[in-house]
Amino acid sequence: MTDVPVEHLDVHAFTVPTDGPDGAEEDGTLRWDSTTMVLVLAHAGGVTGLGFTYGETAVVRFIEDKLASVVRGRDALTPAASCHAMFTAIRNAGRPGLGAMAVSAVDIALWDLSARLLDVSLAQRLPACHDRVPVYGSGGFTNYPLNRLTDQLARWVEQGIPRVKLKTGRHPDDDPQRLTAARKAVGDETELFTDANGALTPKQAQYWARRYHEEWDVRWFEEPVSSADLEGLRRVRDRAPAPLEVAAGEYGFILRDFTNLLDHGSVDCLQADVTRCGGVTGLLSVAGLASARQIDLSAHCAPAVSAHAFCAVERLRHLEYFHDHTRVESLLFEGVLSPDRGALHPDPGRPGLGLTVKWPDAEPYRIHGSIPSPEHARFS
Q1: Which in 174, 248, 315, 355 has the greatest CB count within 10 A?
Q2: Residue 243: is the preceding peptide bond cis (ω within 30°)?
Q3: Predicted confidence pLDDT, tens digits, the chain (380 residues)
Q4: Structural element, H or E, at residue 224
Q5: So what CATH class is 125-344?
């Protein structure tokens, strides 16, 4: 099969309220009451591929105004070429941030489309090094009461997930009680992770890194300080007691964001979000950087895509099985994967990402677009 032109893109957006206390969730630096998915459908050869990102509705306008015309008519079997063309086209509009998220959603849709045209799973379409992606349960928001926090973490452990993460740093004085309850709930054998979302200063983070290690055997300290503070991250990493590791990278949009973290020695484990870093094409470049620096790469969220894309990451560590995203993806899609023995296993018998949109279920949450006609919603 050669030269199957992309016919057009459809863009949809859905906003799903959180199920947190008082209708909101909190981490170290942010409070939110909903999650918005921007969904892209790419059509070619009588087949539809899908991709998405989590962002604001401005991403919709960016795709419709700047990207749809760039990919229209391009070969659906060469998604990487389309990705490079999109990044070239948005030079003046802005590549980091919304621009990279828009490109990511389209790029994922094109990779999914190409795999469906070839009748293989996306993991099989990629240069896969793995057939599964280990996960860690992630939630534990700072506004959860203790019983909800412990129930959530314990439930993941009961499902066979051997590592879990909770948010810290918003109210540091409350964190010892939360960590003690978390450790009791998951037992001594489960790896315990924390994520401050950049809430702390370097000195505060160094203090908490020692306590995390000594009192609760925490193994992973994510964004102890802002990811923009490369020197602060490095200082925390240098002073953190082993085996606690410092991680960051989820806000990497372009390749330079990742080289900056690596050049400064800011992390023990690098993170990347396939829905932010330029999609599958961008992720492959980040994976190459990680391999060259001999550092592991961890997947940030979006498990429906990451479970396939990160099979192509040589230095794969694990995937953040994030409460909000697993909830939204299960609501909107048929075919989402569930953890099995602590990992997600892409199904080689389902083409592409193996997903179809549950249009009737999604409709109450729609904020952009309309239900596509049957011929424009055909998934192979």
Answers
A1: 248
A2: yes
A3: 668 999 999 999 999 999 999 999 999 999 999 999 999 999 999 999 999 999 999 999 999 999 999 999 999 999 999 999 999 999 999 999 999 999 999 999 999 999 999 999 999 999 999 999 999 999 999 999 999 999 999 999 999 999 999 999 999 999 999 999 999 999 999 999 999 999 999 999 999 999 999 999 999 999 999 999 999 999 999 999 999 999 999 999 999 999 999 999 999 999 999 999 999 999 999 999 999 999 999 999 999 999 999 999 999 999 999 999 999 999 999 999 999 999 999 999 999 999 999 999 999 999 998 877 665 556 65
A4: none
A5: alpha beta
Using DSSP's 3-state secondary structure scheme, residue 121 falls into strand
- Whole-angstrom Cα distance, residue 317 to residue 295? 9
| Residue corresponding to tokens 């959180």 | 18
Joined tokens for residue 30: 């942010």
Angle (deg, nearest 10), helices 230-239 and 202-216: 30
Asked whether 298 and 271 are in contact (CB, 8 A), the reply is yes
Q: What kind of fold does domain 8-120+354-376 have according to CATH? A: Enolase-like; domain 1 (3.30.390)
DSSP letter at 24 equals -
327 contact partners, CB below 8 Å, separation of at least 6: 16, 19
Residue ranges, comma separated, of all CATH 3.30.390.10 domains in the chain are 8-120+354-376
CA 208 to chain centroid: 26
The H or E element containing residue 53 is strand 47-54
CATH 3.20.20.120 domain range(s) in the chain: 125-344
* Alpha carbon distance 64, 143 (integer Å): 37
